[in-house]
Amino acid sequence: MPSKRGGSSRRYILETIKRQIQVQNLLKIKKIVDKDKSGNKFIIVRTKKNIEFMREHSLNNEDVKDIIRKLTIEDCFSGPEKDRDEDYNGWIFKFSPIFENIKLYIKIRIESTEKSICLSVHEFGKY
């Protein structure tokens, strides 16, 4: 039976590795956003909740990209995880930055080194 000490050090190692993966993928997301000039590398899904949030705050796609560029690793609260929809490949990361004194919920799927999809961008807990 492993000791508590061994279990907590293993947990620490796993959390450290997970955090490093999150850092690397956040950098990857930002790089994709920066390279996206035509709107086909970083795509914001046009769901009702995303459109409502963007209209409510007078945001366009470039404004959302600016929010993404400002994300920090402390904003990441989940990921990497597989997409629930098995038809899609890639890894899901979830963020909760503060924007204009509002806590946001941002969910991004990294499909490749060249493409990311913003599945959700709206007020945290509203939907």
Distance between the termini: 44 Å
Q: In the CATH classification, which architecture applies? A: 2-Layer Sandwich
Give me the number of helical elements.
Answer: 3
H-E string = HEHHEEEEE
What's the Cα radius of gyration? 16 Å
Principal-axes geometry comes out as: globular
Helix content: 25-40%
User: What structural class is derived from the secondary structure elements?
Assistant: alpha+beta
Fill in the keyword field for this structure:
39% helix, 3 helices, single chain, alpha+beta, YaeB-like fold, 127 residues, six-stranded mixed β-sheet
Provide structural commentary.
The protein has 127 residues and is α+β, with helices and mostly antiparallel strands. It has a single domain, classed as YaeB-like fold (2-Layer Sandwich). The chain has 3 helices and 6 strands. Strands 1, 2, 3, 4, 5 and 6 form a 6-stranded mixed beta sheet that branches. The chain is globular. The N and C termini lie far apart (44 Å).
What's a concise summary of this model?
The chain is an alpha+beta fold and 127 residues long. It has a single domain (4-123), classed as YaeB-like fold (2-Layer Sandwich), CATH 3.30.2310.40.
